Give the backbone structure.
Amino acid sequence: MRPGTAKSKATVSTPLSRFDIQKIKADFPILNEKVNGNRLVYLDNAATSQKPRVVINAILEYYRKTNANIHRGLHKLAEDATRAYEATRTHTAAFIGGVESEEIVFTRGTTESINLVAYTWGEENIHEGDEIVITEMEHHANFVPWYVLAKKKKAVIRRIPITVCGHLDLNDIDNIINPRTKLVAVTHMSNVLGTINPVKELAAKAHARKALILADGAQAAPHMPVNVKDLDVDFYVFSSHKMLGPTGVGVLYGRRELLESMPPFNFGGEMIGEVSFDRVTWADIPHKFEGGTPNIADVVAYHAALSYLDEIGMDNIRRHEMELTEYAIEKLSRIEGIEIQGPQDIPNRGGAISFTDKDLHPHDISTFLDSRGIAIRAGHHCAQPLMRVIGKIATARASLYIYNDEADVDTLYNALVEMRRYFGL
Ligand code: C6P
């Protein structure tokens, strides 16, 4: 058996003094919607989060009052739009620990951020025989670009295995990360198991071998305080849409000297310094990587999401989710036939809770829950190699966020109990 049910729970006891869940729920209009005649219980936050009114309004306001192309026009709207777009960059830099705003590149999402690094830094720095280290729990977004690059360059993919509890098994790490290693690409938090990985420790190991480290923060940045300087990572990537912001906005943090040394990704308008028929120079970072008209409105609205998260406080969000994750795991574990996948030690995991039922396919679980207004995800979660490792074809996954509470977990629990009765189990 691979990830299983080892128990070493820590109790979260800090009171959620600043966490007014009813007030937070009221900020999300979609939570008033009925689904199949029931109150919507949205537990598919690892796929994408819902959006608070301030974010929805920011998109409307932008198009009503500010819409113009950025970094081009000299008129007032163009200047306002440019200022708003760049203000999001400054806020993003502060949000992940106070890096320089030039070290923040906007992309379309985590997937594009990783591809950007693979196609630019990877193309120039990975050669035959080099090794790229990933983990067994990577999302396809942090595996396939490296797989394709390794095939092309005749490089080698090495992987860090996982333990039966769903943590990384670091026993052989000094052999896996070795003098041939050029890059360690690791998820900060697993979208399937919820595991929080020791990125700082891996960064130290990578740097000791003169390798770089890229951390996939798609599931971490929305749910816990992140300080990329403290983690000492070279690249950190995440998506706006999983952290209350709009779709179509991603973030690539890269250390200044790395971004400066990398070639551009998309060629065209706005990423150039000077163009003549026989010579082209590139713009400075980060604009070198943002060719063409970017997703201005959504980047501007992403600022509202960051402000909303800041106002609640990432520490408070993490505490709330730890408490709720502990509650959910405890309740789901009571149901006969249900097995939780992944670690159960709350301080080392987030609120993506994968589970299986010994008698039912995850798709059937999801369909039944949907009929009760409960949105979860079922499938391989874009992590097919991990599914092979844990010996499952699919899991059901309930994933929590700031607007979920014990009542939501109770609704899930009651529906699962009802489901098993319904199927005569
Ligand atoms: N995981 C899930 O349901 P994009 O799609 O580019 O915004 O994010 C990709 C991605 C990368 N890394 C991790 C750890 C992720 O969880 C995701 C997205 C979603 O689990 C959709 S597949």
